[in-house]
Amino acid sequence: MNKTLRIGLITVIGAFMLAIMPLPDWAIAYRPDWVALVLIYWAMALPTRVGVTIAWFAGLLLDVSYGTLMGQHAIGMVFVIFVIHKQHQRLRVASLLQQAVVIFFLLLFKQTLTLWVDGMLGRAPDSWLFFMPTMTSALLWPWTYLILRDLRRKFSVIKHQY
How many CA atoms lie within 13 A of 46 on its CB side? Predict the structure, then answer.
């Protein structure tokens, strides 16, 4: 297993651990979408190695972890990573604030899609706190980006050559 695959796998496993980690009742509604943030970073940094297939499987694992309808998180994750792939060169030169705004709207769409499916199943949430993970994810994007970039540089993970 090469270095790139190991570092990416370790960070995605860490994101899954953060996604299912128990939190106090008041904090559950504010849990960031860690898996999406990590996949977004790797899709921007290494677009030839992290794509919609990995996003699909990560979304299915989230569905299994959360006990939701199979494919509910997967389709949202695929959409987010697809857009990141299409715009990764533009996003790389944008400031972290601009990236956070784009990520906010992508994750807002993903959350809206999840809300739509939950509503069709009769499990719609009763408050607007359902959308708070989008806000906390966007707020944590700059730190997530900087930490993952430093890991990538420390372990000399190669970049995509254009």
Answer: 19
Q: Dig out the tokens for 51 from the structure.
A: 């794509």
pLDDT digits (tens, 9 = 90+) for 46-64: 999 899 999 999 999 999 9
Largest separation between any pair of C-alpha atoms in the chain: 48
Contact of 14 with 52, CB cutoff 8 Å: no
67: left (phi over 0), alpha (psi -120 to 50) or beta: left
Tell the residue number behind the tokens 């694992």, with chain if given: 61
Residue pair 93/103 in contact (Cβ under 8 Å)? The answer is: no
Token pair belonging to 99:
């990236």
Give dist(CA 5, CA 11) in Å, integer: 10
Question: How far is residue 154's CA from residue 118's CA, in Å, rounded to a whole number?
Answer: 41
Q: Which residues make Cβ contacts (< 8 Å) with residue 162, sequence separation at least 6?
A: none
| 104 closest CA partner among 134, 74, 77 | 134
pLDDT band (50, 70, 90) for residue 124: confident
**Which residues have C-beta within 8 Å of that of residue 80, sequence separation ≥ 6?**
36, 39, 40, 55, 106, 107, 109, 110
Full-model pTM: 0.91
